[in-house]
Amino acid sequence: MILEVKHGYFGYSKGHDLLQDICFTLREKEIMTILGQNGTGKTTILKCVTGILKWQRGQTLINGKSIDSSRKTLKQIPIGYVPQAHPLSFPYTVRELVTMGRARHIGVFSVPSGKDKKIADQAIDEVGIRSIRDKLCTQLSGGQLQLVFIARALAGEPRVLVLDEPESHLDFRNQFLIIKLIMRLVRERGLSCIINTHYPEHALRLSDTTLLLGQHSYMFGKTKEIITEKRVEEYFDINVKILPVPYKDEEIKAFVVLDSI
Ligand SMILES: Nc1ncnc2c1ncn2[C@@H]1O[C@H](COP(=O)(O)OP(=O)(O)OP(=O)(O)O)[C@@H](O)[C@H]1O
Asked: Any coiled-coil ranges, and where (predicted)?
């Protein structure tokens, strides 16, 4: 599986392109992060990639086939979308909401089958929320709800998981657990992921490639080559230090903000 965005343009108002000539490639089992200041268009990129919005020029291709033109391709190689965490208005139980992730596999006039319910339960177990599966989603904490949204996306049996700021509103421990969960899903399910994040240290820890988005330009490449002190200074107007921290067999990068420019 290979997902490519080729020369994507998008703007909300006529004559103003928010996103210009966006090009990137996501290969199987790769994790890509998107970083950039507020309002640069990170969520808009995810919406264009998943087909929620349509590129005004350019396209998203999966295995060389445009997903705009071929609904069949989308069905064969589905994309699971995990939106930014938001409180829900309808009192669905966790199990009901996760089962809704099966929607693309269920006919318009059909109800979820035993198989659909089993797959939804597997997704619930995979993200470790079995103990809350009969609770109402309106009564969950932000972190619990985030896990429910991930389980709902997994229930659709995606090959590509697209997550919009999955760590927002979470405490340090839960941020770390979400990062570990994503890494495990990529390893065990062979998924590919695109993740919007505001945390460069998370991008350095988990992603293979990064798209750094600015107001009028962007860079895409290997994460270690993209997230450097100089580039972060350029794209975020802050002085930072990236420090190596040896831990077990790894070298984790600590990210320290020194000052604004
Ligand atoms: N539906 C919409 N109609 C008009 N403008 C919009 C719409 N959605 C977003 N925008 C504008 O497009 C720009 C990019 O929004 P987007 O949500 O993609 O940014 P972002 O980089 O994800 O921001 P953040 O980091 O704050 O989540 C912003 O200026 C926003 O106000």
From this structure: none
What does the alpha-carbon distance between residue 150 and residue 112 come to, in Å, rounded to a whole number? 19
From 10, 13, 18, the mutation candidate for ligand 1 (largest count of ligand atoms within 8 A of CB) is 18
Average pLDDT along the chain, 261 residues, taken 10 residues at a time: 95 93 97 97 95 92 79 66 85 94 73 87 94 94 90 94 91 89 92 96 95 95 96 94 93 92 78
Q: 122 lies in which domain range? A: 88-156
Q: Which residue's CA is the closest to the ligand 1 atom numbered 27?
A: 38
Residues 193, 72 share a domain: yes
Of 105, 131, 156, the one marking the end of a domain is 156
The ligand 1 site (C-beta within 6 Å) comprises 12, 18, 36, 38-44
Instruction: Indicate whether this complex's ipTM tops 0.90.
Output: yes
Cα distances (angstroms) measured from residue 231 to each of 133, 202, 214, 244, 257: 43, 16, 11, 17, 13
Q: Any idea how long the chain is? A: 261
Contacts of 121 (CB under 8 A, 6+ apart): 95, 133
Q: For ligand 1, pick from 38, 43, 215 the residue to mutate: most ligand atoms within 8 Å of CB.
A: 43
Domain end call among 156, 183, 213: 156
Residue 246, SS3 per DSSP: strand
Residues 94 and 69 in one domain: no
Residues 46 and 168 in one domain: yes
